[in-house]
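The following block was generated as part of the benchmark described in Methods. Ligand: iron/sulfur cluster.
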Amino acid sequence: MIPGYAGKFLEVDLFTKNIKETTFSDDILKDYIGGRGLAAKILWDRLGSKWSEIDPLEPENILLFLTGPLTGFFPGGRICVSGKSPQSNGVVGSTVAGEFGVELKCAGYDGIMVSGASEEPVYLFVKDSEVEIRKANHIWGEDAKQTISKITKESRELLRKRFPRKGEWKEPSILYIGPAGENKVRTAVVAAKWTHAAGYGGYGAVMGSKKLKAIAVKGTGPLPEVADMNSVKRLMQNVCKDVYESELWRRWGTGAAGYEVGAKTSSEPVRNWQEEWHDEKSFGVDQFENRVWIKPYWGDFGCPTTCLKIAVVKTGKFKGAITDNPDYELQAYLGPNLGIFTPEENVFLASLIDDLGLCGIQTGNVLGFAAELFQRGILTREDLDGLELSWGKAEAFATLARKIAFREGIGNLLAEGTYRAALKIGEMKKKDVLVYAVQSKGIAIGAHGIRSGKDYPETYSYACSVQGGDHTSTACFPLHDFRSELMMTFNDSAVYCYFNIFGVPRNLKFEFYKAVTGIELTQEEWLNPKALRILQLQRAMLLLGGPDLKWNPKTHDANPPRFYEPLPSGPYKGRTVDKADVEKEIANYYEAVGWDENGIPKTEVLRKLGLNDVDKALEKLH
Amino acid sequence: MTAKREPIWIARELSKCSGCRKCEIACSLFHEKRIWPEASRIRVFMLVPGLDFPHFCTQCEDYPCVEACPTKALSVSKETGAVLVDKDKCIGCGQCIDACPGRIPHMHPTENYVLICDLCKGNPQCVKVCREGGWNVLTKVVRKEQAYKLYARKPEEITRDLAIKIYGEQGEKLL
Ligand code: SF4
Ligand code: SF4
Ligand code: SF4
């Protein structure tokens, strides 16, 4: 057994209620590590042969919760959620911070694989090797805050009864869905705590389709043995020391960006990306810090950064709203993107999005999209069930968010996410509204634009990523760049928070991997063959797609049309990206990662990586 | 450890806790040589998100746990003031837990004895990491004649107080 792993995985079939333990060979774990990499492998092996026919929201889909060998050791605990994505029909490795992964390893498991669907709402309760499927009828329909509160109480009572002499039980770690997930909204998250969310991919909807309200885990064992504890301790300290140097990163987290990415780099979504610049000082980090942040630091297991804050609105119309920062993505998407520029309104919307179990990015994107259609008179008040969806109207956006979560009226259509909603509205209105959809392959683009050229994504990053618009998985050159999705795949496969690699020497993560597992891994070896192999699997499943939508690289490896409009305002007014240049870059990227001119992984590349079956499956795309 | 030992206390400002759980990591590494949150003598509770706080012995002036122990497995260190557990004498009956106003002691997850903070022989590991990171929830101070026992409170009670301090009126709804 490789050190750093608990050594077994839980497999739960919610239809037959069968629960069993399973393992993967050392060779598989060496190649795919855990988290995102292992998710791609498991999904390919189990669903690959019928991939295009599998509806992500039907019981055949497999929902994965996977740790990695570094989870719990590398500062900043996370867990990776995956499965066939109801957004892209491919595979997204979506990670969420918290103690869940640590707790799971302490319970003796490296991951949980959930298949089938329950008839009744249930939640999974794991106490070390005791695993049970419990009824959740009394929690179904509850918002985030009530869900956490009920499951925490119930679990602690259960533990107290079973182990009366133990003393006080700490709460279990919980992953859960809100009403949006229950209603299979494609922009629903798998959540932890407040606003901690595995958002990209839409796995909240998958969890809802399985009638799985939550998973609660209490693990009482130690984290697994490691190969070299002294080195692990030293490396943990090194990471922390470096991170402690970045005072502002710790103090502000990404919460300074709601103003700065607009005002300075001019790459923030403003009114559905019609602009990417604003200079609204009312949205400055000082406003958040002085008016709504009530904790200077909030974080998760072992984290030196503790970039979260906890924001509370204590007076006025939005009194009682609670969320974390919001972080930059939620600041942007539930702020300027909707024409909103005050912390209170932003916190109010973030808090609501949390309660409903929606993704702030995907939902903020579809809300902005709808508001632009209203601005242009394409969607009328009647279409919007009487809503006046004007920019800046926080309460109107809140009403629409609720409609989305409960699939009421127009909300039912928007609950399909920006891309699918655009197709339907296009049909309804006999108009191409895809031109206003800022997304890539069914996944709304993260709040970092490419037109000013001042932000980190490249002009082809979203077009080529195997995770669509995911701003934490951007395609770029050189392949060993820390922003490149091949490198990001390491963080998401070893499973820890990649915010803790900023300011830390590049190679430290591989040293860390060796200290934990005893396995030598160089950056070169990681990139090729390991990361490249994971990339090909993800690319293959993305292109096989289906059943409702399929992607053709010729049309869909592309930027949203909006990114070719010149920026209308700000210091980079007039800037845009050149389509011909982007196409050249895309072709170069294809070449670098072994895809042919049509964007399909090449036979010889796949064979060299030992992916002959993938090659065979892709034949039909040629 | 050559430093002169004197009774100490760990002052605690719970509402500032970041929930980083580095204290649990440090404590379990020191005492168990493993990262083992459930075997840490200091445990971070989060019954409501955002209301994370460390729960550990406050060394009550009258040490009710020591009094309650039927096998005399607990004693008070003259040097630091900490409660010391004699693993061999402890029978895991849980009477110290019931005697503690904060129900702070807890059973070792795999062994049959109770876990109580031993102040790391006067050099508290949890304080060190909490201060290194600048959270400063924990501070080592010289023990004087003060009412330390006030800090022995149950997780629910602490959560209730923090909910009101941090979330205000809304806090009540979250409990
Ligand atoms: S180290 Fe300090 S801030 Fe971190 S969890 Fe412990 S008490 Fe809280
Ligand atoms: S806090 Fe509890 S464990 Fe500590 S001395 Fe008081 S009674 Fe004993
Ligand atoms: S002083 Fe030592 S034993 Fe007590 S909680 Fe802190 S680290 Fe643990």
